[in-house]
Amino acid sequence: MEDLTIQERLMAIVEASRAPQSMPVEPRVERGEDRVTTVVEITLDSAAGSRPTRISDLSMGGCFIESITNYRPGEIISFDLKTISGEEIRFTGKVAYVLAGFGFGLKFNNLTSSHALFLRKTIELSAQ
Predict the structure, then answer these.
(1) Which of 20-24, 50-54, 81-85, 120-124 is least confident?
(2) Which of 4, 22, 61, 109 could in theory staple to 33 by disulfide, Cβ–Cβ 3.0 to 4.6 A?
(3) Residue 1 lies in a domain
(4) What is the average per-residue pLDDT within 13-34?
(5) 54 Cβ neighbours under 8 A, 6+ residues apart
(6) Range of the domain at 10
(7) Strand 35-46 and strand 62-66: pairing?
(8) For residue 10, is it within any domain?
(9) Looking at residue 114, which CATH number applies to its domain?
(10) Is 69 part of any domain?
């Protein structure tokens, strides 16, 4: 994967984004939670600053965030998600793994009942 040019990496992300957007995906063994493919635009807040990007799959335990920026496993990342009513909910998590040039898996931490309710509704709507 290190031999891929930036253009080839971006094309792979574009091709992946053209896949059906609401198909359930088999859970990763590490994740242990059902996940759904979705597209949610977000702005990441980390030690590296704020960057616009998107979530490409989501579960009750975490998500995959597309990013060509290199983050480190263990790094703490935050972002806001908007509810249907426009309310913003702040999520924070730890980078669980990195796929260089494509993105990273984020494991949520400090989830409240409001977070869990929001995630359940979002996952149910995405799976339809």
Answers:
(1) 20-24
(2) 61
(3) no
(4) 49
(5) 39, 40, 41, 42, 65, 66
(6) 6-127
(7) unpaired
(8) yes
(9) 2.40.10.220
(10) yes
C-alpha 38, offset from chain centre: 9
pLDDT in tens, 34-61: 778 888 888 888 887 888 899 999 999 9
- How many structural domains does the chain have? 1
CA 18/CA 94 separation, integer angstroms: 27
- Amino acid identity, position 97: Y
| Residues 46, 81: Cα–Cα separation, whole Å | 15
Tell me how many degrees the CA angle 123-37-92 measures, rounded to the nearest 5. 65
Q: Which 3-state string (H, E, C) describes the chain?
A: CCCCCHHHHHHHHHHHHCCCCCCEECCCCCCCCCEEEEEEEEEEEECCEEEEEEEEEEECCEEEEECCCCCCCCCEEEEEEECCCCCEEEEEEEEEEEECCCEEEEEEECCCHHHHHHHHHHHHHHHC
In a domain, 102, yes or no: yes
Tell me how far apart the alpha carbons of residues 26 and 84 are, in angstroms, rounded to a whole number.
Answer: 26
